[in-house]
Specification:
The chain is mainly alpha-helical. The protein contains five helices and no strands.
């Protein structure tokens, strides 16, 4: 895995540029937290009984990207990646067959698809799909939620990484 690069979001910019910058910053932060670790380390759970792991977080964020951008924003009928009715938290329940290369490639593909879906849209655009609550959301709300989701999970990732090899930082 190549070492991920991260750019600081702009400190002065229009709203769209600022939101894009912060979302990319947090996507890159999660990638940085996973960089340099082997498959076993990426599977290391936080503390029992939690199954939270860096690999699980990457799989979770692939699901979140897919859910908000494909299903809600664009109304694409696309199945979940790792979850099911029987296992709604399936992204965190790892089997021996689950590997970093697949999860990382899937996550990156979902990010790339999300970037294509938001290109040229106004922050005021309403989603064409609906959330499970039945509501439509503005693209502005989706950006804000995605930044919050990544920021929260990057805090988890920071603690997981420190437990694995002592690495700390932004």
């Amino acid at each position: 895995m190549t070492e991920p690069q991260r750019s600081e979001p702009p400190v002065t910019a229009d709203e769209r540029t600022m939101l894009d910058g912060w979302l990319e910053y947090h996507r890159d932060t999660l990638a940085m937290k996973c960089a340099g670790l082997d498959d076993k380390q990426l599977r290391t759970a936080s503390v029992p009984p939690s199954e939270l792991s860096l690999l699980g977080l990457v799989r979770h964020m692939a699901e979140v990207e897919r859910g908000w951008f494909r299903r809600v924003l664009a109304d694409e009928e696309t199945p979940t990646l790792y979850c099911s009715d029987e296992d709604p938290d399936g992204e965190f329940h790892l089997s021996e067959a689950d590997a970093w290369d697949e999860a990382h490639a899937t996550w990156q593909a979902e990010i790339a698809h999300a970037r294509r879906l938001v290109a040229g849209r106004s922050l005021d655009d309403l989603s064409t799909g609906r959330h499970r609550s039945g509501e439509q959301f503005s693209l502005r709300w989706i950006y804000t939620h995605m930044i919050e989701e990544y920021a929260r999970h990057n805090g988890h990732a920071d603690l997981l990484r420190e437990r694995i090899d002592g690495v700390t930082g932004d």
